[in-house]
Amino acid sequence: MSVVAENSVSTFSIDVDTASYSFVRGSLEQGVLPPKSAVRAEELINYFPYDYPSPADRGSPFSVTASLMQTPWNTGTELLHIGIRGYELARDSAAPANLVFLVDTSGSMGEPNKLPLLVNSLRLLLDSLGPEDTVAIVTYAGSADVALEPTKATERSTILATLERLCAGGSTAGAEGIRQAYLLAEQNLAKDGVNRVILATDGDFNVGITDSEELKSFVERKREKGVYLSVLGFGRGNYNDALMQALAQAGNGHAAYVDNLMEARKVMVEEATATLFPIAKDVKIQIEFNPDVVQEYRLIGYESRMLAREDFRNDKVDAGEIGSGHTVTAIYELTPTGSEAALVASPRYGRETNSPESAYSDEHAYLRIRFKAPDGDTSTVITQPISRANEIGETGTVAREARFSVAVAAFAQILRGGLYTGDYDYDDVIALATSAKGEDRFGYRAEFVNLIRLAKSAAAMEPLRR
């Protein structure tokens, strides 16, 4: 918890990665609770699409919905829920895409849930590409090779034939592969389009550049030239989750973990436009809390996305991107000023609070969101005060979507040890998630409820394993 009297401003970069959810699912399906460090709450929350209001027109890159609601696991606090939804581009109006698939073909990729699944995943993505999009394939094992020069997506048979010829063998020259992939992307640069390297791998790099900071710096320099990096993870064991996430963040890209063909369809088909075509970049959120109303706050998740207060106005500081139609959710837990639920005692020599004469006495907080156009260098800021007028009840689309995201947030916190969730347990999460399941067109929310049940069973078995 942060004390508002000491630090009233919270600043972070948005995050639309989803790799942690799939990794957690893989662990639970094996009857094992995931390592706490692998549970990133924001990635679990943002795994799901949410029916937030859409922007009115293309002139607004995204809409923002801020809501206040009761905290399910603590009657003495409330939640500030922020929902963002990107403008959804029609696929035929999206800019052309220059894509380079960087495919790990090292020996460890020979397992069924690795290279074969990777190939099937890329086959699915072809169905989402337009006639002006191009695809190239670079493979890396003991060395890096160009398996397919830039080819129009309409030449489907040529691309598929290349994919079918891929086979696993050798060590992992990942760094050399990255160099080759970026070179190919730059040679075929779409000046008014999307240029992206998509790294598909099962793990760590053990040949070439092994220093993670050096790799990140390389990716960051290429990002400044207009070529972004996304990461698709496959398999378990030697998968370096932290490095893959860091590289995707440095490359203004999306990190996903593909553990089955259904997940491949979600990432490559249903979310392809959102993943490949950004509508805003360097998106930062800053919230200033009013100490007269809020005594403490904590942001659920986003630990690796926190920014210094001064970074918010610095356009040189990188942040996350929002893709076409993407939804992003952030949730704060707030302790009202004077509440007995406060975890930190009020300072003896602190400032006076509860000032009824204040012009802002009704405001909980002030929200600022800063972003750039995909091809821009100068940011724009939008602002919104948050007050009692933002309170929501139990009914309506926004309330339903907020409740479901809060259920996911509760689940993530329990998996990480439940430091702030008290007696709230898996059964409580199941009840909350079930009440807010909604239409659930693709069955993601029903699957989530089943994962909670698996976590409950795995937790019960933990003492037996010891």
Give a structural overview:
- This protein has 466 residues and is α+β, with helices and mostly antiparallel strands.
- It folds into two domains: 2-86 and 280-342 and 360-412, Gamma-adaptin ear (GAE) domain (Immunoglobulin-like, Sandwich); 91-276, Rossmann fold, CATH 3.40.50.410.
- The protein has twelve helices and 16 strands.
- The protein has helices spanning 19-29, 41-45, 115-126, 156-165, 174-187, 212-224, 241-250, 261-270, 272-276, 397-415, 426-435, 444-465, and strands spanning 2-3, 9-13, 62-70, 78-86, 97-104, 134-140, 144-152, 194-201, 228-234, 255-258, 278-289, 294-299, 320-323, 327-336, 363-372, 380-387.
- The strands form three sheets. The chain has a six-stranded mixed β-sheet, with helices on both faces. A five-stranded antiparallel β-sheet has the order 1-12-14-4-3, with helices on one face. Strands 2, 11, 13, 15 and 16 form a five-stranded antiparallel β-sheet that branches.
- A hairpin with a 7-residue loop joins strand 3 and strand 4.
- Helix 10 (397-415) packs antiparallel against helix 11 (426-435).
- It is globular.
- The mean pLDDT is 89.
